[in-house]
Amino acid sequence: MHEKEARIGPWLVGLGAALWGTETAWRVPLTRLFGERDDVLVWWEHVLLVVLAVPFIVPRLGELKKISRTTLAWLLFSGIAGSALGAELFTAALHNGNATVVNVVLNVQPLLSTTAAVLLLGDRLSPKFPPWAVLAVASGMVLIGLGPGFTFQLDTGVVLALVTALCWGMSTVAGRVVMVDMSLPLAAGLRVVIGLCAMTVSVAAHGHLSAGELWPDTARAATGETFGYLVALATLSGWIPLLFYFRGLSLTRASTAGYFEMMQTLAAVAITWGFFHAALAWWQVVAALVLIFAVAMVQRAQEATTLK
Predict the structure, then answer these.
(1) Contacts 24+ apart (CB under 8 A), 77-80
(2) Do 259 and 136 contact (CB within 8 A), yes or no?
(3) Rg of the chain in Å (alpha carbons)
(4) DSSP 106
(5) What CA–CA distances, in Å, run from 283 to 147, 148, 213?
(6) Distance in angstroms between the alpha carbons of the first and the last residue of the chain
(7) Does this model's pTM top 0.85?
(8) For 153-185, what is each residue's pLDDT tens digit?
(9) CA atoms within 13 Å, Cβ hemisphere of 247
(10) Which of 45, 61, 62, 267 meets the CB 3.0–4.6 Å disulfide criterion with 18?
């Protein structure tokens, strides 16, 4: 792999993650329109993602004959745990716990993905890697709300947040394995197809697989607005960042990628500040700058090690 490609890879992961972070601008109003039907919202998101993905998938279906069963298994895991289950668990965590605490806990995700990458993929870590990794995680926690007045209590929301972090962390590892053996358009497309299948099962299990439940009165009363938000969610915060993310993973070791995924946290805070006028404390601004610096140093520390 060329040095330039290895250097740009983590930043493509970060760009994709940052674009994912813009979803707050669309997901919050959609949550009000769909009420308690969070699974239905995620289902519609995947329906539109599949519509966008089909033109990329169909011409490349012949590639599946050359893909190993191991790669397909990791792709299946990525689609279920990363695209569907993770979103549902995160929503459940927010419903069962304090939102700030939940988001702080989610910042352990890079530590989980690094551990899995080392154990499962044999990723090598530079001796300079640990301190910068810890600084990145700590600054991410401060950015999202770990500061004066923060209180922590172990509850259902925290447990669900930890499981969510595990799902998303392992999905980073899964995505890296898939991108080594599969083309970008096919991998990204099949991930959302698998996610839609998983969400259909979930929606059916919740008893929401009917016209009235899939398109409730609140959404029907604002059809244009609802559709507009869904399209923005599926394109600007869905399919486009997924392509950047998977391209970045093809050039980046999983142990490094997890820290650049924290750009999603940075973008989410920026959206909350810009769209919903939530004030940022001075220490959050400092934490944002430290986070950017720390992930850059993570990438620099890892440049000297062999990329597998």
Answers:
(1) 77/170, 77/171, 77/174, 78/171, 78/174, 78/175, 78/178, 78/191, 78/194, 79/190, 79/191, 79/192, 79/193, 79/194, 79/195, 79/197, 79/198, 80/194, 80/195, 80/198
(2) yes
(3) 19
(4) G
(5) 8, 10, 43
(6) 10
(7) yes
(8) 788 888 998 999 999 999 999 999 999 889 999
(9) 15
(10) 267
